[in-house]
């Protein structure tokens, strides 16, 4: 076995090795004996005595340096070859015994008789012999041959212990380290690498680690090449090989090869090997292209991921899963941290790489880690925060990415806790909703994943956000805290006392925030475990009672919200929670299968809940505002929570009785003959037959006697009915049979067929208030009954909807005739600040006009002239401003009302019984006006609910009515998206109808332009246009919802797309297929768009749909479509800003999503722009949207896309020759763009050229110059031609700078310094590239002459002086003064250097 093990070693070591080994055999014992004695003799003469005993070390009589010198002299005096053989053969025989060999590898000792003053311990025998140059080659062979004998435990004899046996290979390697002189370095390296191939893994690691200490510099390349191959073959040696590379002297080309091998190893490396790999790669990147190496590293680096538990899961994260690889994870994280923190170039490289990523799919977890590390560096905090915000706003950093980051490296991330918390705090203070939402996700993950200390810090920070006084910041923080309370109730309850301190900040909160805060506090104190709950409960009760009894309505509203939240939580706790305190867990709920269980007077729950309700009703009955708020709050709680039926039954009986007493009267067959305030009363708007009609809403009499503090005020009617309907539905499983008579009941009102001029101002106000309350009543009625299945009920709902649109049009007419109504309405609702909307934002002007009107007009009769003057003053401002004002006071429609979209044509249920009108249609359907009314309301709701969509201009985030205290306008984005997806079938049909209408108009009027002129006064055309645009805007806004692409919402997205897939089965169609069909279907509407605004919205919808469904194959389809739209001649009433915005959007995607964007830009520059400037004839291929007015818009977009394209060339997968060609085309197009400025020398275009030119140069330096460095040697001519093309543009840019300074245009000159700096950087960067390739002689710097935009030379100061002197010699002095004066106006301060040849 021993022979078999040593056999490959002998074949590797060669003939010399074999001959030496044969000298030790039994057949040559005489020779061995002679060699052995010769060894003793020679060593003794030199001063070394071999011991041969286990316990006694080898001894030196003299110092080791003297011994080496004497032995070397001995070998020189005798026959060197024979003496060397004798010593080596004798040494080989001597070390056959493992004990002797071990002693030869151990330190020698100076004998007691030695007079040396050095240390007693000296070098080992083997080390002393290796230090002699003539002995070193053979001694190296002997020692390395012994290594295989100690590789396996089976070769060990009894003379050595196991520890001593395992230590011998390391002792052998230690003899070869740090030799004073290596005689044959290549031979030594070769022998080591040969032994390395057969050594076990542990010994291989030791040998590889020892290589830098054994080999001389001449052998480092050989060893590095071998280790590079070994790195790819054996993953167990990764760390040892990488550590060895860091200590070897390597050439640049070999470093690049090794770096590529290391990058290949990253993807499959063990987690324990990643720190050393990352360190080597990053250190190597310092001397090379850092950004390119970081890009490659990101692609290869895949950090291990573990299961990410959802935030709402009750199962705790496994400690074993967290700690099994925690140490290695922390090592990787610490390695990245040390490299980034202490190497500025690496940190800059990471930031630039992350900035350059423009796709959410390309971002990785490591990007988040690196940014967290960079944020911990004080000097980089601001830049990282800005980068985070930009990435979040553009949708590149997603919540899924953050979740993956916290799911993979929790233990490592906890080391950056303070930095992450500070970053989340900054993001939460942003004014952008999507950034605040992202910060909320950060807070949630920190609280869920980190320890108790971190959780306390998170809660404290959230409390600071809530108390900051900034509404948006407080809303976002409250939302996060609410999510944490619902998901981690027990964890948050530890910090109840901290959260309770927010009660001190109620005064600065709006209704939405108060509602959320009370919900959080009541959940923490009334539900879950009893821990300091009683004291918090007592404090909450005390605060609420004080608020309810306060004289200020604002505090009463706070108390109402708090009391209703207590009812909600206590009533919900009976069924769902373990209730704290006096409440027990008795189940008192009911279901549709059994009789509802009600409270008894003796139950504890009845004693707690019902008194609170009675107190609320008593307190609220004193104020209309309080009563309205209580009704809406209670209705919302009943509809969204599982409140016990006993509580609901009590509420239902109370409010139903009050509603009948306050608002209803028994209808009579004959209308009343009496009149109030000289206005005749009559029963109107009844939809029931005479047999069914038994009740009527007593509207107009209540309008005439309405007061602010009356419980029977008409302001309460919609809210009162809302609560009554909600309670009825909850008690009867959704059935409204008990109150369905209110849908078609008559209204006690009056006819509006009056002459404005014959009524007093007071009477006109009364009619306006009647119409206003009537509309609000009908709005609540259709919200209540729109979900009914009965055809007659549905028909009545549609008829009520028709009545609403008619009444709103009638109210607008009466408002024109009643200038004081709007102010009276604002006073009634306590919203006087809303009057500012009537002046279009001009608060002082509106206030002044309002005060003037109130001072001049009173309730007395006024003359006809005064009425006419008032009408003339107000009629001009009534349209949009009045609609915006009235939007604040309309009763909000519920989401259920949009079920009307799905109604079919219905039979009119009152045709036979109604006698009010002479003619009624037998069929009832939703008309264009009603559809437009619903679409506009749905669009307004989407603008409020989806934060990524531009906010509503006239509806604030605090919700309509009472500063955010109403529940009516709070709609969830997911509910709205689900609703829109459900009615998209109807929307697609409406789009088809609008499209068919527009096409018919085009065919009837010989083209779109004639069609627009012919139908400009057509009401139907206007309505169809508005419907078409609103549907597209609704689609775009829903698709813009940032959470639509989340897994939970993909069904909504698929339902949305399936609406355009006909009758296809959704189970057999994938989301991608449905999206492609939807995109092409919507694209077909482009042939009949009425104006540019619709084109803008259409393309925007397609873009959002492609982005969210990842249907990248259809990008070219959108690019083509955008090009066709740009080639149309649009006529419309858009403003200049709207027109430019639409053209910019269309052109951006026409170029960016085209297969060859550069070609599109080149065609526009070469053909379209010159034709526009020359006013050539219009042809089919001309961009008719391009004109002298829109040229700056075109120019800006094309320059921006040219810069964006330049960023992508280097990272593309094309061949190098194709990349060079792309860069050449880009430089040529830039030159063409610069020439446009000379032909169209407008200030706006020149400013764009200066700003975008600087961006182009900077991008060229960053993305293109490193690529040109690698291509210069092989493609010198192409690179030089590229630089010459670029040179023409840079020279013109310099002329632009001169022109700006000469004309002293501040707007233009502010761009000059940055552009000059970029041009100077380009100058020296090109020089650096030429110097690297030994071509510095081909480069020199010249001084450009100062020229204007047209290339005419501008005389400098010195030239003007020379000209003046010459003219003075041949002209009178007066003429000379004139020339001097004219030249002095063209003085240029300096001469600028630029990349160019001298201009002689």
Biggest sheet statistics: 4 strands, mixed
Stretches where pLDDT falls below 50 for ≥5 residues?
1-35, 305-325, 573-603, 841-878, 949-965, 1357-1400
Strand content range: under 5%
Molecular shape: elongated
Radius of gyration: 44 Å
Question: What oligomeric assembly is this protein in?
Answer: single chain
Approximate helicity band: 55-70%
Question: How many distinct beta strands?
Answer: 14
Mean pLDDT over the full residue set: 77
Give the structural class.
mainly alpha
Number of helices: 63
Q: State the separation between the terminal residues, measured CA to CA.
A: 89 Å
Biggest sheet strand line-up: 1-2-3-4
Q: What does this 3D model show about the protein?
A:
With 1400 residues, this protein is mostly helical. Helices cover 63% and strands 3% of the residues. The chain is built from 63 helices and 14 strands. The chain has a 4-stranded mixed sheet. Strands 5-9-10-8 form a 4-stranded mixed sheet. The chain has a two-stranded antiparallel sheet with strand order 6-7. The termini are far apart.
In short:
The chain is an all-alpha fold and 1400 residues long.
Helices and strands, with pairings:
Blueprint: H1 2-13, H2 15-22, H3 29-46, E1 48-49, E2 59-60, H4 64-77, H5 80-94, H6 98-104, E3 107-110, E4 121-124, H7 125-130, H8 136-146, H9 162-176, H10 185-198, H11 201-214, H12 220-233, H13 238-245, H14 252-266, H15 274-285, H16 290-300, H17 319-323, H18 326-342, H19 344-356, H20 365-375, H21 381-393, H22 399-408, H23 410-413, H24 417-428, H25 433-449, H26 452-466, H27 471-487, H28 489-493, H29 496-500, H30 511-526, H31 533-548, H32 553-576, H33 604-620, H34 624-640, H35 645-663, E5 664-666, E6 675-676, E7 679-680, E8 682-684, E9 695-697, H36 699-704, H37 717-731, H38 741-744, E10 746-749, H39 761-785, H40 791-817, H41 821-829, H42 843-856, H43 864-875, H44 879-886, E11 906-907, E12 923-924, H45 928-945, H46 973-982, H47 984-1004, H48 1008-1014, H49 1019-1039, H50 1050-1058, H51 1071-1083, H52 1092-1109, H53 1115-1126, H54 1136-1152, H55 1157-1174, H56 1191-1209, H57 1216-1239, H58 1243-1271, H59 1276-1303, H60 1306-1309, H61 1312-1332, E13 1342-1343, H62 1357-1370, H63 1373-1384, E14 1393-1394
Parallel strand pairs: 2-3, 9-10
Antiparallel strand pairs: 1-2, 3-4, 5-9, 6-7, 8-10, 11-12, 13-14
């Amino acid at each position: 076995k021993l022979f078999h093990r040593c056999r490959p070693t002998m074949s590797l070591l060669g003939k010399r090795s074999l001959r030496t080994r044969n000298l030790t055999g039994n057949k040559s014992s005489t020779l061995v004996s002679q060699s052995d004695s010769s060894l003793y003799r020679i060593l003794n003469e030199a001063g070394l005595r071999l011991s041969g005993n286990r316990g006694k070390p080898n001894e030196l009589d003299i110092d080791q340096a003297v011994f080496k010198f004497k032995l070397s002299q001995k070998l020189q005096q005798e026959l060197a070859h024979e003496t060397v053989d004798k010593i080596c053969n004798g040494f080989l025989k001597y070390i056959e015994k493992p004990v002797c060999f071990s002693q030869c590898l151990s330190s020698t000792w100076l004998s007691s008789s030695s007079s040396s003053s050095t240390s007693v311990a000296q070098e080992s025998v083997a080390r002393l012999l290796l230090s002699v140059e003539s002995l070193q080659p053979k001694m190296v062979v002997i020692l390395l041959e012994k290594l295989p004998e100690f590789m396996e435990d089976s070769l060990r004899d009894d003379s050595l212990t196991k520890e001593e046996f395992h230590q011998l290979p390391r002792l052998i390697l230690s003899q070869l380290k740090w030799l004073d002189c290596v005689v044959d370095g290549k031979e030594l390296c070769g022998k080591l690498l040969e032994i390395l191939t057969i050594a076990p893994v542990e010994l291989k690691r030791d040998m590889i680690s020892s290589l830098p200490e054994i080999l001389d510099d001449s052998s480092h390349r050989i060893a590095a090449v071998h280790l590079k191959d070994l790195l790819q073959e054996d993953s167990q040696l990764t760390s040892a090989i990488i550590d060895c590379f860091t200590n070897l002297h390597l050439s640049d080309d070999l470093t690049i090869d090794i770096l590529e091998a290391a990058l290949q190893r990253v993807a499959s490396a063990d987690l324990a090997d990643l720190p050393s790999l990352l360190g080597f790669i990053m250190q190597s990147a310092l001397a090379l292209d850092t950004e390119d190496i970081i890009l490659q590293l990101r692609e290869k680096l895949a950090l291990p991921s573990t299961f990410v538990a959802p935030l709402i899961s009750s199962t705790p994260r496994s400690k074993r899963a967290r700690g099994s690889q925690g140490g290695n994870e922390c090592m990787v994280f610490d390695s990245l941290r040390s490299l980034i923190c202490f190497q500025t170039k690496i940190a800059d490289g990471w930031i630039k790489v992350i900035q350059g990523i423009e796709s959410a799919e390309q971002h990785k977890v490591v990007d988040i880690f690196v940014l967290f590390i960079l944020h911990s560096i004080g000097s980089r905090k601001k830049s990282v925060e800005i980068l985070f915000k930009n990435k979040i706003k553009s949708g590149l950093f997603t919540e899924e990415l953050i979740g993956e980051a916290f799911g993979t490296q929790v233990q490592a991330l906890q080391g950056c806790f303070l930095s992450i918390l500070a970053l989340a705090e900054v993001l939460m203070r942003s004014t952008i909703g999507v950034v605040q939402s992202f910060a909320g996700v950060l807070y949630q993950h920190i609280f869920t994943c980190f320890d108790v200390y971190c959780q306390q810090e998170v809660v404290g920070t959230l409390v600071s956000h809530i108390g900051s006084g900034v509404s948006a910041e407080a809303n976002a923080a409250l939302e996060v805290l609410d999510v944490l309370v619902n998901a981690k109730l027990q964890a948050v309850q530890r910090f109840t006392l901290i959260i309770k301190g927010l009660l001190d900040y109620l005064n600065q909160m709006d209704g939405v925030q108060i509602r959320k805060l009370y919900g959080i506090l009541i959940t923490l104190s009334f539900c879950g475990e009893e821990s300091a709950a009683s004291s918090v409960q007592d404090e909450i009760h005390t605060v609420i009672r004080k608020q309810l009894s306060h004289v200020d309505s604002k505090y009463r509203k706070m108390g109402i919200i708090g009391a209703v939240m207590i009812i909600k939580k206590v009533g919900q706790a009976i069924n769902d929670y373990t209730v704290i305190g006096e409440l027990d867990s008795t189940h008192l709920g009911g279901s549709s299968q059994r009789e509802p269980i009600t409270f008894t007077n003796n139950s504890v729950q009845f004693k707690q809940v019902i008194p609170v309700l009675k107190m609320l009703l008593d307190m609220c009955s004193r104020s209309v505002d309080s009563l309205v708020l209580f009704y809406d709050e209670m209705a919302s709680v009943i509809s969204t929570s599982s409140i016990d039926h006993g509580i609901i039954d009590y509420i239902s009986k109370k409010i139903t009785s009050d509603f009948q007493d306050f608002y209803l009267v028994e209808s009579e067959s004959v209308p009343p003959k009496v009149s109030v305030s000289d206005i005749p009363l009559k029963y109107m708007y009844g939809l029931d037959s005479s047999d069914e009609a038994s009740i009527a809403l007593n509207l107009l009499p209540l309008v005439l006697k309405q007061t602010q503090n009356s419980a029977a005020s008409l302001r309460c009617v919609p809210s009162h009915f809302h609560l009554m309907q909600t309670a009825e539905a909850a008690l009867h499983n959704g059935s409204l049979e008990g109150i369905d008579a209110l849908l078609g009941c008559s209204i006690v009102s009056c006819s509006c067929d009056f002459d404005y001029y014959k009524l007093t101002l007071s009477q006109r106000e009364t009619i306006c208030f009647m119409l206003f309350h009537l509309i609000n009543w009908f709005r609540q009625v259709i919200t209540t009954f729109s979900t009914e299945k009965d055809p007659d009920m549905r028909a009545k709902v549609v008829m009520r909807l028709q009545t609403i649109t008619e009444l709103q049009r009638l109210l607008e007419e009466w408002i024109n005739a009643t200038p004081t109504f709007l102010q009276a309405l604002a006073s009634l609702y306590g919203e006087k600040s809303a009057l500012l909307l009537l002046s279009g934002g001009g608060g002082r002007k509106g206030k002044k006009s309002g005060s003037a009107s109130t001072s001049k007009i009173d309730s007395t009769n006024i003359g006809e002239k005064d009425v006419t003057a008032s009408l003339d003053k107000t009629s001009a401002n009534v349209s949009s401003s009045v609609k915006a004002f009235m939007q604040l006071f309309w009763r909000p429609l519920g989401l259920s009302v949009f079920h009307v979209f799905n109604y079919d044509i219905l039979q009119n249920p009152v045709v036979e019984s109604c006698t009010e009108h002479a003619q009624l249609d037998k069929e009832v359907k939703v008309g264009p006006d009603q559809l437009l009314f619903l679409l506009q309301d749905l669009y307004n709701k989407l603008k409020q609910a989806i934060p990524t969509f531009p906010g509503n201009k006239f509806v604030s985030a605090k919700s309509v009515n009472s500063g955010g205290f109403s529940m009516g306008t709070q709609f969830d984005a997911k509910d709205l998206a689900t609703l829109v997806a459900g009615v998209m079938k109807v929307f697609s049909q409406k789009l088809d109808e609008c499209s068919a209408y527009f096409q018919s108009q085009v065919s009837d009027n010989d083209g779109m332009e004639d069609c627009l002129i012919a139908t400009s006064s057509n009401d139907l055309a206007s309505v169809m246009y508005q419907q078409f645009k609103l549907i597209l805007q609704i689609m775009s806004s829903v698709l813009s919802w940032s959470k639509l692409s989340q897994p939970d919402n993909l069904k909504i997205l698929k339902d949305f797309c399936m609406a355009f897939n006909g009758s296809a089965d959704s189970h057999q169609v994938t989301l991608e297929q449905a999206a492609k069909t939807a995109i092409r279907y919507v694209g077909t509407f482009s042939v009949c768009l009425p104006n540019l605004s619709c084109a803008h919205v259409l393309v925007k919808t397609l873009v959002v749909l492609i982005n969210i469904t990842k249907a990248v194959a259809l990008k070219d389809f959108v690019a083509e479509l955008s090009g066709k739209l740009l080639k149309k001649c649009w006529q419309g009433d858009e403003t200049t800003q709207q027109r430019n915005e639409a053209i910019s959007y269309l052109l951006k995607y026409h170029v960016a999503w085209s297969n060859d964007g550069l070609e599109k830009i080149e065609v526009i520059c070469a053909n379209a722009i010159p034709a526009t400037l020359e006013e050539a004839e219009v042809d089919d291929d001309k961009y008719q949207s391009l004109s002298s007015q829109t040229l700056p818009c075109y120019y800006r977009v094309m320059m921006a896309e040219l810069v964006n394209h330049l960023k992508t060339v280097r990272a593309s997968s094309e061949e190098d020759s194709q990349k060079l060609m792309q860069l050449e085309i880009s430089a040529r197009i830039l030159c063409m763009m610069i020439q446009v400025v000379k032909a169209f020398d407008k200030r706006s275009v020149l400013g764009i050229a200066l700003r975008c030119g600087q961006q182009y140069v900077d991008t060229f330096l960053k993305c293109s110059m490193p690529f040109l460095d690698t291509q210069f040697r092989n493609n010198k001519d192409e690179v030089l031609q590229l630089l010459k093309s670029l040179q023409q543009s840079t020279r013109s840019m310099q002329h632009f700078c001169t022109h700006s300074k000469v004309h002293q245009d501040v707007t233009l000159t502010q761009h000059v310094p940055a552009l000059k700096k970029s041009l100077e950087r380009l100058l020296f960067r090109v020089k650096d590239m030429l110097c690297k390739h030994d071509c510095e002689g081909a480069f020199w710097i010249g001084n450009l002459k100062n020229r204007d935009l047209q290339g005419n030379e501008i005389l400098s100061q010195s030239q003007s002086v020379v000209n003046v002197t010459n003219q003075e010699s041949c002209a009178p002095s007066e003429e000379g003064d004139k020339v001097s004066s004219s030249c002095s106006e063209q003085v240029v301060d300096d001469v600028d250097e630029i990349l160019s040849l001298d201009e002689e």
